[in-house]
Write a structure and sequence with these properties.
With 478 residues, the protein is an alpha/beta fold. The chain folds into 2 domains: 124 residues, Aspartate Aminotransferase, domain 1 (Alpha-Beta Complex); 307 residues, Type I PLP-dependent aspartate aminotransferase-like (Major domain) (Aspartate Aminotransferase, domain 2). Helix content is 41%, strand content 12%. The strands form 4 sheets. Strands 2-8-7-6-5-3-4 form a 7-stranded mixed beta sheet, sandwiched between helices. Strands 11-12-14 form a 3-stranded antiparallel beta sheet.
Length: 478
């Protein structure tokens, strides 16, 4: 390989170098403060304190109270695992809840619906209310965008293919609705409104896309979901009171009124976009440290905690219970509030919290610097290479996906690497599979266009000189 004195890294959307200060903050938990947070002695208590402080730091970075919000922070082994927990965990709880509703009628499973007019069920079967019958007669619905990360797309595909028996339910699988995007990569909100129904359990839309950098209107999506829930809740109350006039619980809220929930993958967005979970209106948010100059091997799922009323006590008092509507995917010792068993990776957790806090503090400065570098790069490249086009719009500051007609993207990537420039043809998670970009396909790009498109992504280690040198080397190759 031909070596250059100056290596230029243009793949920060894939990962970022570990910040030396974050490394120093992590070191003691590898060497001296190595205790297991589950141990009762001082070593364990010191480790547990570090984990709890990290939760509080992250909760605060997301706009939640330090003291109560820390229970909403779940540490995982990666953002991919966090996305899996959000989708699988929510759907599994919902399937169980909706097969065992708070309504006083018989749970409307496929078998008793089929036998509603059978003498063996009698009056009890005929008391199945219309809303319960329609809800349980069809599979539960998951709504995602067409341009989600593979960890969401592949999980959704598997959930739609699995049989109900494998998940402890009655249905043949979950129904997945894929929301289309326009040529800028923005989700069609009209289609979202049309897709929401009483069987919808979860909506998952990525905040900032990892290939083209399109930024979704997350707060607006949350408003659409909230308004749908409010309208549905009013209608459901009326139907429940009508069908069950003698049910003392028919006036109250139940678990079904909390759906659909809303999840966003904010891995690429956190460094550059406002991620106050209350302002955005999301129930779940996925984050990753290694996109923020933190360590690899650690992810975060924010899971909003809600209070739900249980059945009335003998004295007529409502009993409230806290829930995050999740079921764990990894069981064992009950770590992470029962959501993710396994000994906590204390050094990485400490590094993750520091990376998120630092990224939030530097956000305005980073946005300004990275936009300047990306603008300079694009201006210089367009000046010297004909036909260069930007894929998508409304982009994250650090991502620039370009159609370069003169060279095949894979060949160009290899040539650039020989010249000391690191870039990517798309998502790092799918790069070795060399499959066609589903994101560019969703934008309506032709196969030829996709084959000649490449992603450049910028980080804070770059200078203007790096950018100009990168353009010079690209021009030499092309």
């Amino acid at each position: 390989m031909k070596q250059h004195k100056q290596q230029i890294y243009l793949d920060s959307a894939a990962t970022t170098p570990l910040d030396p200060e974050i490394y120093e903050a992590m070191r003691p938990y590898f060497l001296t403060d190595f205790g297991n947070p589950g141990s009762l002695h001082s070593y364990g208590q010191d480790a547990l304190r570090a984990v709890d402080e990290a939760r509080e730091t992250i909760a605060e970075a997301l706009g939640r109270p330090r003291t109560s919000g820390f229970r909403e922070i779940i540490f995982t082994g990666s953002a991919t695992e966090a996305n899996n927990l959000a989708l699988r965990g929510v759907l599994k709880v919902a399937q169980r809840s909706m097969n065992r509703t708070d309504c006083s009628c018989v749970p409307a499973t496929r078998d008793n619906l089929r036998s509603q007019h059978s003498d063996s069920f009698g009056d009890q079967a005929r008391n199945v209310c219309e809303s319960c019958a329609s809800r349980n007669a069809k599979p539960l619905r998951l709504i995602i965008s067409e341009i989600e990360h593979d960890s969401v797309l592949e999980t959704a595909k598997e959930l739609s293919a699995q049989s109900g028996s494998a998940l402890g339910g009655e249905h043949e699988g979950f129904e997945v609705i894929y929301l289309p995007v326009d040529k800028k990569g923005i989700v069609n909100l009209k289609k979202l409104k049309e897709a929401l129904n009483e069987r919808t359990v979860l909506v998952s839309v990525m905040y900032g896309n990892n290939e083209i950098g399109s930024i979704q209107p997350i707060a607006e999506i949350a408003t659409i979901i909230r308004e749908y829930k409010e309208a549905t809740r009013v209608a459901t109350r009326g139907a429940t009171r009508k069908n069950h006039p003698n049910d003392p619980n028919a006036e109250g809220e139940n678990v079904l009124s909390c759906y659909p929930l809303f999840h966003t993958d904010a891995v690429q967005a956190f460094q550059y976009c406002e991620c106050n979970v209350d302002a955005l209106g999301v129930d779940y948010m996925t984050l990753s440290a290694h996109k923020l100059y933190g360590p690899k091997g650690i992810g975060v799922l924010f899971a909003r905690s809600a209070l739900l009323p249980m059945k009335s006590s003998e004295k007529g008092m409502k009993v409230m219970r806290a829930t995050n509507f999740l079921e764990p995917m990894i069981t064992g010792g009950g770590q992470e509030f029962g959501m993710r068993s396994g000994t906590e990776n204390v050094p990485l957790i400490v590094g993750c919290a520091m990376a998120l806090r630092s990224a939030k503090m530097r956000r305005a400065e980073e946005v300004k610097k990275i936009i300047h570098l990306k603008t300079l790069f694009l201006k210089e490249l367009k000046k010297k290479i004909k036909g260069v086009q930007v894929n998508g719009a409304d982009m994250l500051p650090h991502i620039l996906n370009l159609f370069i007609p003169q060279r095949d993207a894979h060949e160009l990537l290899i040539a650039l690497d020989r010249e000391g420039i690191a870039v990517s043809s798309g998502s790092a998670c799918a790069a070795r599979a060399t499959k066609q970009s589903h994101v560019l396909s969703a934008l309506g790009c032709s196969e030829h266009h996709i084959r000649h498109s490449i992603r450049f992504s910028f980080g804070n280690v770059l200078t203007e000189g790096d950018v100009k040198e990168a353009v010079s080397r690209i021009c030499r190759i092309i």
